[in-house]
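Journal club side-thread
Mid-discussion, someone asked how the predicted structure for our own chain would compare to the paper's figures. Pasting it here so we can look after the session.
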Amino acid sequence: MSGTVSAPRATRGLAPRRSSLLYSVLLGLCALAVVLQGLWAGIFLEHDGQRDDAAGWIDVHARGGEIALALAVLATIVAVVMLRSRRDLWIGSALLVVLLGGEAYLGGAIRDDGRDVLTAVHVPLALVIVALVVWLSLRSRYPVRES
């Protein structure tokens, strides 16, 4: 047997850079805020429509949405400025900002204007947001391999 053993290929770019670490931290905190939104919604929905009994948890839910949106904006800025080559991340992050903004608008209309019918859009949109934040988290974990 003629044996030439090739050396294992070096894995370029697998060590996280500071910019991708910052993005991952911001996105992880955003994901935590998104997941907590479901918990807080479950707590105030226990009161079955009595807004006065659930007012404190509705406020917590609203603040959590604002925090998630702010973290998504920061993650998008990091993605655009520092991870420009990761088009998937900055477009996905920008989409997350748009969806969270729409979700916050719907939540405000439900809470402030009593438009409870919008809950039929608000809850499914929340599930889309959860799916997107999970996809972004998984996608950001590994660098894009160039062919």
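Post-session note: The longest helix spans residues 51-82.
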